[in-house]
Write a structure and sequence with these properties.
By secondary structure, this protein is α+β, with helices and mostly antiparallel strands. The chain has six helices and 16 strands. β12 and β13 form a beta hairpin. The chain is globular.
């Protein structure tokens, strides 16, 4: 209302003088008016990229359409201009389970910090394990981070995938190693046009093939039994009860279901529920004061670093108190160099290996031939001597 009154006040002071064609008070204030609107709209655009969401998720795990167990989690999302962090508190079940999970994306890499709760001899301790990768899609687990990301942090991702009909899965794949290979599936989506451009609904399809990755990163594929070899809907997501705040629209609720083929299913729509996730927001804040920082932890963290795909073995190390190593850290570079064999050296080693294999094959085949020929010669010589006598 204040903006409208201010604009009306400026309009009242703008007198036109069409006959003379000279600059008038209206012309002078027109530029001021549009500049004011531009500044205000720019402020709205900044607001639309900075927000936080608190909420709850319930994940149900099913076997043959029967609920086996369920987890209730509370979450916090912080997003600012494409940088985001999701923090989930998981209610521990058993004596060693995930109790806290944090995912942090800074537009170039993702840090995943998982804190496990452990009880032994009535003593409670926490174990911290982290992974670092360049994959912008969170890996799926009981924390439901990947589904929360889809609901509240996937705007930039979908803006880049707008012209593609293939998306990266957000659920646990048949072989989780496919996750770090950038594996995609056929999908259809409807996106909310208002910032930050989050999905209203997404359907991911399976093409009828099961894929696995071997130890040397070679892929194996297996066809589903009919009728599922024709493909089926693998995962369906939709959001509802959108909340509008200062130019940004965020879902108040979301629901995601993962499906799998039934044994002796009648058709491609005859599916079993594997995972059912429901989430809702309890608080939404849009503010310029949203600060997104990397995960912090007081103590030792075991890190698995996937940012260097050409290494022969996974790069593993420890850090203390959340002092994350940059990709070009000198100490990390040395570890990577030890695990990375130059292509020329790999070619020489491969060639030597082939030569050794051929040599062993020759030895295995030739030695028995010499042995047989020697025995034959001995028997022939012995027969000749016997004939002479």
């Amino acid at each position: 209302m204040k903006l409208r009154k201010l604009v009306e006040k400026l309009d009242d002071r703008m007198a036109s003088n069409v006959l003379t064609g000279k600059p008038t008070l209206k012309n002078k204030y027109a530029l001021t008016r549009w500049l004011l609107l531009l500044v205000i709209l720019s402020g709205v655009a900044v607001h639309s990229q900075q927000y936080s969401v608190s909420g709850t998720t319930i994940i149900g795990q099913y076997y043959m359409n029967s609920l086996r167990r369920a987890f209730t989690n509370t979450f916090m999302v912080q997003a600012s201009n494409g940088v985001w962090k999701i923090t989930v508190d998981v209610k521990p079940v058993g004596n060693r389970d995930l109790c806290r999970n944090e995912r942090y994306w800074d537009k170039t890499q993702m840090i995943t910090l998982s804190i496990f709760h452990r009880e032994e001899n009535e003593i409670t301790t926490n174990v911290a394990i982290a992974t670092i990768s360049t994959n912008p899609i969170p890996e799926s687990d009981v924390s439901t981070c990947s589904f929360i990301w889809l609901a509240y942090c996937s705007g930039n991702y979908f803006s880049h995938m707008r012209n593609s009909n293939r998306l990266h899965p957000v659920w646990a794949l048949d072989d989780m190693r496919l996750h770090n290979e950038g594996f995609t599936v056929l999908a259809r989506s409807a996106i909310n046009e208002k910032p930050p451009g989050l999905p209203k609904c997404v359907t991911y399809f399976n093409d009828g093939w099961v894929r696995t990755v071997g130890p040397d990163r070679e892929r194996s594929v297996f066809r589903y039994n009919p009728p599922y070899d024709l493909g089926f809907s693998n995962f369906i997501y939709y959001s509802d009860k959108w909340v509008s705040r200062q130019g940004v629209e965020l879902p108040g609720e979301f629901h995601a279901v993962r499906y799998a083929p039934k044994y002796n299913g009648r058709d491609t729509n005859d599916l079993s529920v594997i995972t059912d996730v429901r989430g809702w927001s309890t608080q939404i804040v849009v503010s310029d004061d949203i600060l997104v920082t990397p995960p912090q932890y007081e103590g030792v963290i075991d890190v698995i670093d996937y940012r260097h795909p050409n290494t022969r073995r996974v790069v593993q190390y420890q850090i203390t108190n959340g002092l994350w190593l940059a990709r070009d850290d000198p100490g990390l570079k040395k570890m990577v160099e030890k695990r990375t064999r130059p292509s020329a050296e790999r070619a020489v080693v491969s060639s030597r290996g082939r030569m050794l294999a051929v040599a062993m094959l020759i030895i295995v085949l030739v030695i028995p031939l010499f042995w047989m020929a020697g025995n034959y010669w001995k028997r022939k010589t012995a027969n000749k001597e016997h004939t002479k006598t």
